[in-house]
Amino acid sequence: MHIAIAGNIGSGKTTLTGLLAKHFGWEPHYEDVDTNPYLNSFYEDMQRWSFNLQIYFLNSRFRQVVEIRRSGKTVVQDRTIYEDAHIFAPNLHSMNLMSTRDFDNYSSLFTLMSSFIQAPDLLIYLRASVPTLVNQIQKRGRDYENAIRLDYLKGLNERYEDWISGYDLGKLMIVEVDNLNIAENPEHLGNVIDRINAELHGLF
């Protein structure tokens, strides 16, 4: 079974992935951040490196999904391949940080790749306001994220909402993050786990 966690930068995907893996005994698949050779360069010069970054993520996530389905295990995944194509790449294009030529090339590649994969059995969307995102980004203190602009986060949030409102590839669960502290409040985490159990029982 494939459970995926979607959400903007700083929404808490990695934290929830780890906590769910520990609770359920699932295998976690994390976003390729630490070994990504383009991230630092991208935040320093988005226009120059946007296409390279998106292609790297597309390749990495396609590989992850193929491995998840082959493994036969229950896996919880930190971010989906769909978010790159429906949120990040179009946002960069609309901000003139990715050329139309590159965006069309990227979109064509995504369309081909997505025809070979299955959607997650359950998608968990972490919804957070921009102030919450900024607070959580500052807390974790990744140097390259210091340069993230508020208008960039706001644009991403709007695209997330558009994508989620039309999501029909499988089961969807929305978690409101603004008043939640799953890392430090066991009751908050317990509520999320209860909701996941309720969703998953419907799968069988």
Structure write-up:
The chain has 204 residues and is of the alpha/beta class. The protein has one domain: P-loop containing nucleotide triphosphate hydrolases (Rossmann fold), CATH 3.40.50.300. Helix content is 57%, strand content 12%. The protein has 8 helices and 5 strands. The chain has helices at residues 13-24, 39-44, 46-71, 81-94, 100-114, 130-140, 150-165, 186-201; strands spanning 2-7, 27-29, 75-78, 122-127, 171-176. A 5-stranded parallel beta sheet has the order 2-3-1-4-5, with helices on both faces. The radius of gyration is 16 Å and the shape is globular. The N and C termini lie close together (11 Å).
In short:
With 204 residues, the protein is α/β, with parallel strands linked by helices. 57% of the residues lie in helices and 12% in strands. It has helices at residues 13-24, 39-44, 46-71, 81-94, 100-114, 130-140, 150-165, 186-201; strands at 2-7, 27-29, 75-78, 122-127, 171-176.
Mean pLDDT: 91
Termini separation (Å)?
Answer: 11 Å
Structure summary, number of beta strands? 5
Q: What string, H for helix and E for strand, traces the elements in order?
A: EHEHHEHHEHHEH
Secondary structural class: alpha/beta
Helix content: 55-70%
Please describe the structure with a list of short key phrases separated by commas or semicolons:
single chain, 5-stranded parallel sheet, Rossmann fold, 204 residues, globular
